[in-house]
Amino acid sequence: MTRWAAPGRVNLIGEHTDYNDGFVLPLALAQRTVVTVEPAERSVVRSSREDDPVTFAAATVAPGDVTGWAAYVAGVFWAFRAAGHAVPDLDLHVDGDVPVGAGLSSSASLECAVAVALAELGGLDLGRTELARLARRAENEFVGAPTGGMDQMAAMHGAAGRLVFLDTRTDAVELVPFPLAEHGLALLVVDTRAPHQLVDGQYGQRRADCAEAAEQLGVPALRDATLDAVERLTDERLRRRARHVVSEDARVLEVVDRLTAGADPRGIGPLLSASHASMRDDFAITVPHVDVAQDVMERAGAHGARMTGGGFGGCVIGLVEAADVDRVSGAVAAAYAERGWTAPVAFTAVASGGAGPA
Ligand code: GAF
User: Fold this and answer.
1) Among 35, 2, 5, which residue's Cα sits nearest to residue 358?
2) Is 257 labeled as catalytic in the residue annotation?
3) Which residue ranges does UniProt annotate as crossing the membrane (predicted)?
C-alpha cells in the first residue's frame, strides 16, 4: 500500500489569464487530497466523501465511461495511456482536507495525486510539468471541463513559502518568495459558500469572448494585446473582457516584480483589490456573496482583497495583518449573518509543497 498526495491552491493574482497565454501567481495550500493505492485486478476508486465505489478497467477506460467525481481519477489513467504510458489496475481510496466546490481546486489536487502515483508506480520519470499536463488533459478531454492549466501546475510545482509564477505560454515556472509571516502578515481565505449560481457554460463563454477579442485584435492570444488596442474594440462586452485579461497580466507582473525585489508585501494590496474590481466590473464573474466579503475585508483593514479562482462563488482572499485575522474574518461573518446568509468559513493559507508521497 502506498499513499500519494497533492495540494489545493489559491491564486494570489492572475485570473482567467491562463487560457490567454498569460501569467498566473498561485500558491499550493497545506490542504491536500490523499490517495491510498494498492494493486488490483480491476480498478476501483472509493472516496471517504462518497457512498459508492466506482470501477473501471485501466487498459480500456475512455472518455464517457466514467462520470462524476471518479472521472478525475479515471481520466488520469486515460491521459497516461493516451500519452503512451502503460497503467496498472489499482484499488484507490481518496481522502483529504481540500474543501470541495469552494474554488480551491480539489479536482486538480485529485488528478495530480493520481498522476504522481501512476508515474512512481510505473517508474516513469516524466517531470512535474509533464505530469501537470497529463492531469490537465484528464480534466479537459475526459471530464470535459475547458479549463486552463494553472491549477494542475500549482499542485505540481508548489513550494513552501513560495508563489508559483507561471508563464502559461511556455509553462516556464519561477518560484517567488512570499514571506508573509516575517512581515507580520497573513493571507486570509474566506470560503463564501455562495449558493451555486446558474453558471453552466459561463467559463466557456468567457473563453470564447477572449478568443473572439484576440481574433478581432489580430493577435495570437490576449497576452499579446495592448490596453490601447483593446480600447479600440467596438463591441463593449469584448472590450471589457479583454481589458480585464490584459490589465490582469500587467498586475501579475507588477506583483512579481515587487516581491522578487524584496519589497514589503503590503504594497501589493492595491493590486489585489484592483484585480477584484476588474473581475467584478469588466469580466463579470463575481456574485453578491463574493463582493460583500471582499468589500467587508477591505473596510475591516485588509491591505487588499480579491476573489480567487474561476468565479461565480468560491473564496475571497485578503492580505491582512496577522493580528487582524480574527477581526477581519469576524467582520465578514457578521455581514453574512446580517443578511441571513450561510456562515462563511475562514482559514489562513500557508504556501506549501507540491504533489508527492504522503
Ligand atoms: C479555474 C480554471 F480551472 C483555471 O484554469 C483558471 O482559468 C481559473 O479558473 C481562473 O483563473 O480554476
Assistant:
1) 5
2) no
3) none
